[in-house]
Amino acid sequence: MIIIMLGAPGTGKGTVAGFLEQQLGFKQVSTGDIFRKNIQEGTELGKLANSYMVKGELVPDDVTIQIVVDRLEQPDVQKGIILDGFPRTVAQAEALNTILAKKGQKVDMVLNLTTPEEEIIERIVSRRVCENPECKTIYNTIMNPPKQEGICDKCGGKLIQRQDDNEETIKARIATYMEQTSPLVAYYQKQGVLRTEEVSQRIGRLGKDIADDIAGEIKNGNH
Ligand code: AMP
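A: This is the predicted complex of the input protein with adenosine monophosphate.
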């Protein structure tokens, strides 16, 4: 099964994808995490990706698509995959359809998360992530704080703030989303696979609630 997480930065794509991975045993694949790992390791890909990420811009399509093509061949994603942060352009979405069609597969569900704009910036600046690359659990210092400040509940790793989670870069990332990624909402709507869910503190519906509903439906064979 192929699930895509869509939505502006700070809507909770990574959080929902993480819960779905736990509940369904599908693999969460985040292109942002792959880039950050390469930045940490100082690879050429990391240097290239970083030059775009610090500005809140997208890494070029050809580079990003190739990463996903390679990742889709790995044995651990064959049962199911949750693509978190890919595709982010129509060209990436078309490339993905072509790759999947060659394998006799298709996108099964596109989960489009929406959050009121005033909540987005607040969520992003209070986001902390576990720096352990095997864990990467996401916290929020206001809504979902760790038991001990700065320490991951799950693995004891150090919690850090992403370099691009500052107010200036966030504004650029939101503008990039509006311009290059938001057309995917109509794109997948047309394909009949779009499901839109609002994640909002105000209405009391958070990522965990959405993941629980969807995992329940999938387990009951409703997809
Ligand atoms: P994320 O962790 O998904 O918020 O991604 C962080 C950053 O990585 C983005 O702001 C982009 O610079 C880059 N990135 C992640 N996924 C993609 C993608 N599918 N296409 C282009 N750039 C990406």
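Residues 4 and 110 are 5 Å apart (CA to CA). The two ends are 9 Å apart (CA to CA).
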